[in-house]
UniProtKB/TrEMBL annotation:
The keyword Nucleotide-binding applies. The keyword Ribosomal protein does not apply. Residues 304-334 are annotated as: Disordered. Belongs to the ABC transporter superfamily. InterPro entries: AAA+_ATPase, ABC_transporter-like_ATP-bd, ABC_transporter-like_CS, P-loop_NTPase. Gene3D superfamilies: P-loop containing nucleotide triphosphate hydrolases. This is ABC transporter ATP-binding protein. Pfam families: ABC_tran (PF00005). SMART domains: AAA (SM00382). Keywords: ATP-binding, Nucleotide-binding, Transport. GO terms for molecular function: ATP binding. Residues 312-325 have a biased composition (Pro residues). Residues 8-233 form the ABC transporter domain. It comes from Saccharopolyspora halophila.
Length: 334
């Protein structure tokens, strides 16, 4: 159990490469005891921001601190932060075990840490195989094992699910949740919301280098207007009752009613109390993927829906405001 002090704090962080503003005025905090997802389309600036947090590149302006200090000033960096930015670059003829023992020597930690780390990431069975024969998913696990060698307080992971099969993704999810539940901190990037939506507690969404959302995933869901879709032989009466109860109502082309801002139980209770028959009632699932597309204002090429959904913001129009108080944290535009 860690003491809960592992905190990453990013304040007004910016980085330009020549004329290109890769990261613009980025601010957020990754808290202990939580998995924070750092989400954005390709090229949104995630890796650049993570590299600044880890002291690998200098910001153009702003600060990134870990436990209140820039990474370079941490007295025991491997014991504070374990990072995976890239699952390549292993020596192909070294075994996984040999690779980790080299790290153990470099980090001045006991060799047993190598076995422990391999065990933690489920690679013990491949400990004596040469890394050159590893799949991308196995390399991801080995990279994670390397990051865990110092028994760090904080994990910083750039696209850790890349190359993992569904079983590997499920394993990673449980691993990271357990890591955070022990009072430690996870900051993980992804460009694919569905991949991390069951893993993260908080979300920082970036687009074109700027924050467009910073808050809890549950709040993001809750702030979206929800609808309950209802099939009834008496839509007019249900409309009157729903409106009297303060809910908006829309008529759908298929004959159903959409009752706005409530849930199926409330609508069913309302109908039952007034003796209105219902043939079907269903909460509309909030499609976070569409929401992500909306927030990133079309920068997210991977979220292009299958021809059915049209982004709510057209060229030249103002972007829709992000939800609630977690709205735009930068005026840099979506
Ligand atoms: N060293 C560099 N020199 C010049 N431009 C760079 C450099 N590193 C990143 N960039 C540019 O900065 C922008 C942000 O890149 P970055 O890799 O941080 O995005 P990302 O969100 O991590 O994307 P991806 O999901 O594709 O990895 C991109 O336009 C990229 O081409």
């Amino acid at each position: 159990m860690h003491d809960g002090s592992g905190r990453i704090h990013v304040q007004g962080l910016s980085k330009s490469f020549g004329q290109l503003p890769a990261v613009q005025n980025l601010s957020f905090t990754a808290h202990p005891g939580m998995v924070t997802g750092f989400l954005g389309p390709n090229g949104a600036g995630k890796t650049t921001a993570l590299r600044m947090i880890l002291g690998l590149i200098q910001p153009t302006s702003g600060t990134a601190t870990i436990n209140g200090l820039p990474f370079a000033e941490l007295s025991n960096p491997a014991g504070v932060v374990g990072a995976v930015l890239d699952a390549h670059g292993f020596h192909p003829s070294r075994t996984a075990h040999h690779h980790l023992r080299c790290y153990a020597a470099a980090m001045n930690v006991p060799d047993e840490q190598a076995e422990r780390a391999l065990d933690l990431v489920g690679l013990k069975i491949a400990a004596n195989r040469k890394v050159g024969s590893f799949s991308l998913g196995m390399r991801q696990r080995l990279a994670l094992a390397t990051a865990l060698m110092g028994d760090p307080q904080i994990l910083v992971l750039d696209e850790p699910a890349n190359g993992l099969d569904p079983e590997g993704i499920a394993w990673l999810r449980e691993f990271l949740k357990a890591f955070a539940a022990s009072g430690r901190t996870v900051l993980m990037s992804s460009h694919f919301l569905r991949e991390i939506e069951h893993t993260v507690d908080r979300l920082v969404i970036v687009s074109h280098g700027c924050n467009v959302y910073d808050g809890y995933l549950d709040e993001l869901r809750a702030e979206q207007s929800s609808r309950t879709l209802v099939q009834t032989p008496d839509p007019q009466q249900l409309t009157v009752e729903a409106q009297d109860a303060g809910f908006g109502v829309e008529y759908l082309p298929d004959g159903r009613l959409a009752v706005l801002g409530t849930d199926s139980q409330t609508v069913a209770d309302l109908a039952a109390a007034r003796g209105i028959a219902l043939y079907g009632v269903q909460d509309e699932r909030i499609d976070l993927e569409h929401l992500f597309f909306q927030l990133t204002h079309g920068q997210y090429s991977g979220a292009q829906p299958h021809g059915a959904w049209v982004p709510p913001v057209g060229p030249g129009q103002q972007p829709l405001p992000p939800p609630g108080q977690h709205g735009p944290t930068s005026s840099g535009g979506l």
